[in-house]
Amino acid sequence: MIMKKSLFTISMLMAVSSAVASPWSLDSCISYAVEHSLQVRQRIVEVRQGNVEVSSAKSGYLPTLGAQVSQGWNIGRGLTSDNTYADRNTSNTQWGVNLSLPLFDGLNTPRQVAYAKASLAASLQQLEAIRDNVTLNVIAGYLQVLYQKELHQEALHQEALSSYEFTRRKALLEAGKIPEIDMLEAESQLVQVLLTVWLIGFVAVLGWKIGSHLNFRTRILRDASPITDSAVLAVWRQEIESARFRKPKFKLVTSP
Asked: Residue 143: enclosing H or E segment and its boundaries?
């Protein structure tokens, strides 16, 4: 199975990317993620299938109309009314129309209709749940981006103040108005601010990647089921032994 990044991560990256002509709003990110979510599309297909099943179940109340036509020919010798044989050709045409209307089928049709409606309602609820889940993921990612952006702006502001203070103290030092220890202090503060800016960016990117991986892993394992194919399991055990895993805690599963 080809791994893909989560849709809400793509939305966030597109929203904050400098290559985008205009920044995306939160509503734009949510709309894009919901529209392009594979799980949402699968649920939509299930809802459409549920509507078809409800219509099909309701059609059990309708009458059944049928028609048939048959034509036959007989060519050759045949027995006549005076008990003699003669060459003759005969044709036979039959047609019919039948109409049936169900009066009572043991409540089978009403139960099928009720079952189809219940399945459709469940599919609709699952669709809304998936949409809400995608929306919450987008909101969480969007707020995280805004928070990291604020931290970055604050760090840049602090860097500007430290640079200005460093320049001011350097000028005072050259004029002989402050001791050299104050200049070293300003240099230390500037290095600390630059290190803080770098550390904020590193933590933001690392946290984003970890969150994307965990979200993708959760979505894959949500509907995963253990492998039961004996041939595949034999290869799996062989690889486990080759890697010298004594008691592996992970299992071999497949995800739809």
From this structure: helix 108-174
